[in-house]
Amino acid sequence: MSKAFKIYVCTTCGFEYNEAEGCPQEGLAPGTRWEDLPDGWYCPECGTPKSDFNMLEI
User: pTM score, two decimals?
Assistant: First the structure.
């Protein structure tokens, strides 16, 4: 059984990275897990680094 997809929110601008949707404009296919994003990935909206995102509790 696969684990549920999660959503991560930029602490600066509120951009949401949804693992289920990916980020096609950044070349990230739907289903791309947070841990599979490069460490140097930045928010496509404001440039905040991946390390400054928080997981959204659902």
Answer: 0.89
